[in-house]
Amino acid sequence: MIRFKDTITTDVLIVGGGIGGLCAAIASAQNGVDTLVAEKSDSRRSGSGATGNDHFLCYYPKAHGDDIMPILQETFQSQIGGFHDPKLTLRFLKESIAMADRWLEWGINMRPFGPDYEFMGHAFPGRPRIWLKYDGHNQKYVLTAQAKKAGAKILNHSPVLDLIKVDGEIAGALALDVSGEEPAFRLIRAKKIILATGTANRLYPAAGTPGSPFNTAFCPACTGAAQAQAWRIGAKMVNMEMPNRHAGPKFFARAGKSTWIGVYRYPDGKLLGPFVKQATRYVGDITCDVWNTAYTDVAHNGTGPAYIDCSEINKDDLDFMKAGMVSEGLTAVVDYMNRTGLDVTKHAFEFMQYEPHLIGRGLEVDINGESSIPGLYGTGDMVGNFRADISGAAVYGWIAGNHAAQTAKTCALKDVEGSDWVKERTELYDSFVERKNGGTWKEANLGLQQIMASYAAAGPYNVRSETLLNAGLKYLGDLRKEAVSSMSVDNAHGLMRAVEALDLMDNGEIIMHAALERRETRGMHIRSDYTFTNPLLANKFLQVWQEDGQVRTNWRERWGL
Length: 561
Ligand SMILES: Cc1cc2nc3c(=O)[nH]c(=O)nc-3n(C[C@H](O)[C@H](O)[C@H](O)COP(=O)(O)OP(=O)(O)OC[C@H]3O[C@@H](n4cnc5c(N)ncnc54)[C@H](O)[C@@H]3O)c2cc1C
Description:
Layout: E1 3-15, H1 19-30, E2 35-38, E3 55-57, H2 61-64, H3 69-77, H4 86-106, E4 131-133, H5 139-150, E5 153-155, E6 160-166, E7 169-177, E8 184-195, H6 225-232, E9 237-238, E10 244-249, E11 263-265, H7 287-290, H8 294-300, E12 307-309, H9 315-327, H10 331-340, E13 349-357, E14 362-363, E15 376-378, H11 389-408, H12 420-434, H13 441-455, H14 466-486, H15 492-517, E16 540-547, E17 550-557
Parallel strand pairs: 1-2, 1-8, 2-5, 8-15
Antiparallel strand pairs: 3-4, 6-7, 7-8, 9-14, 9-16, 10-13, 11-12, 12-13, 16-17
Helix pairs in contact: 1-5, 1-11, 4-11, 6-15, 13-14, 13-15, 14-15
Bound molecules: flavin-adenine dinucleotide (FAD).
């Protein structure tokens, strides 16, 4: 049996020490309450911001003018824009420049080009530029140090497995110690919990390298834990059925496309998009933000491949681009270029569309970042009704951290020891350790990927339908039963992976239930049985949650300004 190592008590628990989690921790600890971050990996180098980022969406009155509304509109039209409750986005924008100021003060170089902030990339010609360009290569070290300085404790190598609810409110979490070979459980009693576990990857076969499921454009250790854990205790999710696919260099699986300064071309040299003829560091080719399926379309209709052409940029911009790749954490690409003599001024780079994953789809949160379960918050990529990537995770982490800490001061801890839910979950996890010669977590994960690709596929050129989704739910149910009754693991690491596979199954199930309810075609959610876009659903979000063992859905209006 897996032993219980200890029980920890804290006012605010943060699940995930990525960008959002660390900013939440700093805010919470600065309020003088006990703050603990439970991080699966090591917060100095974890998550999608592990090795850096370089674009920080924000509203800066000095550059953008006093009217925030054009910046709000530009945000909705940008690549992160589709699924927002405008009320949340407006609050984010208003508080965004203060976050950039804080990062600068803490030691992240937010002004690498001079005395003031500069806005570059992900921009349309002649329109406001909303992405501040910064050098984020050291951001995780800086935020970790700042969280510790503020008084937060960081528990690395401690993935959270399950959330505990008592009398309808959040009460604590079950964590796993994976710092050694032998796994150990930990109970964490907390008055408030902030989920910040990032994207959900490894749900679908890796598009560039199906044989290497961890070669994903976003952090492969982010596996929809927040959505799965919150789902299991009845929290509401939104937009889970809406697929998202990122694009970038073919087979590399590296996000960060706006750091490239070039234009996209067909093999005969014709430009793919209408936006720019010549890319500069300020305005690159935004075609691939707007025409998200471009690289799949040109492969499908035979006019491709599509390449990024950096041959016409000047030497200064080329050096600038390579430096930007280091700020952005794309050092593997730069190393590859240097090692192989690949010169982007001479050689075109083919781009591709990556597999579907969840980003900006998941937990529904209110204006303070709180979910439908009192005391449970969310920030960052796992939130379903607001998205602004790096700065969104940071600013909403700050908002949630402050709110959780302030409200924690007036509420009491609940008793989580002896919880039937904890007993049920720990018995399940124990069974994987006790069983010898069973199936592997990898088989379960790959099986899920096959089911998702076959029955809940994302567009373009793939459809969903009632019959396919119902078949998918049946097979997913079978796979889960098989995994639960046959998986075995050798050590703590294997147990963590087995839990990830089960979390991903929960995510797959939520997607399928929501996709069944969305009886229309919208974006890459393509229904062969409802081939049109229903205008009545344009401003609505689909909530999905579990109640009394049943899956419930509800359409709600977006929360306007
Ligand atoms: C190469 C690349 C370039 C990018 N460039 C930009 C950019 O320039 N601008 C921009 O805005 N965005 C960019 N992004 C996206 C950006 O990095 C993310 O949006 C951002 O990191 C989200 O923050 P987060 O806190 O939600 O998640 P993350 O920073 O990914 O953190 C999630 C954390 O949760 C941990 N975790 C997962 N499961 C558990 C669990 N069960 N228990 C405990 N911990 C867990 C993970 O280990 C991780 O540390 C880029 C992403 C990549 C990969």
